[in-house]
Design brief:
single chain, four-stranded antiparallel β-sheet, alpha/beta, Rossmann fold, seven-stranded mixed β-sheet, 232 residues
Amino acid sequence: MTSTGLDLTGITLTYPDGAGRLTALDGVGLAVPAGTITAVVGPSGSGKSSLLAVAATLITPDSGRVVIAGTDTHGLSRGDLTALRRTTIGIVFQQPNLLPSLTAAEQLQVMAHLDGRSPARARARALETLDAVGLADQAHRRPHQLSGGQRQRVTIARALMNDPAVLLVDEPTSALDHDRGAAVLDLIATLTRQKATATVLVTHDRALLTTVDTITEVRDGRLTTPARRSEG
């Protein structure tokens, strides 16, 4: 059995709401083993984005524990959390947010520079990662020269530059048609298994979830019991 890459236990998160507080997450627990994908679905406003933000250590919950690749984040300083995200967590945002003046390879090299890699090592790692997502021949192109699906692949490659133990993906197919969306999800599934990441995929499109291991639903800040997909 694979070890747990991401473990959320008893997560409660509230926001100020007038004189009271609004509960976004209510005692949520979620375990995602390395090398598997858990899809999180649910209506708008159900708590999906809040769950992803807590898992990414971008928001500290009111209570509960977030364990990333064996590291309990409770009590870590802001600097320690930033370092953890840089070395252990990959995040794929809904919009690619690529810098228009940089080539595909340069988008990734920026991430490697943040880790202190030399320019030569950063370039080599960027080209290797672009090859992993099927874009080796597009390394020199800028975002406006790439299709929507290709831009999303660059975003996935950028998130993989630090060999993350945990990969968090927010609505990666929202701007893509069905075929391109299916191709992106197939890629995420393949990379999850190859690189043994614990992947959480937030999506509204259940029709594309044929490659995930577990589907769980968020409603009113609570998770349903995760249903393990049958194999075969």
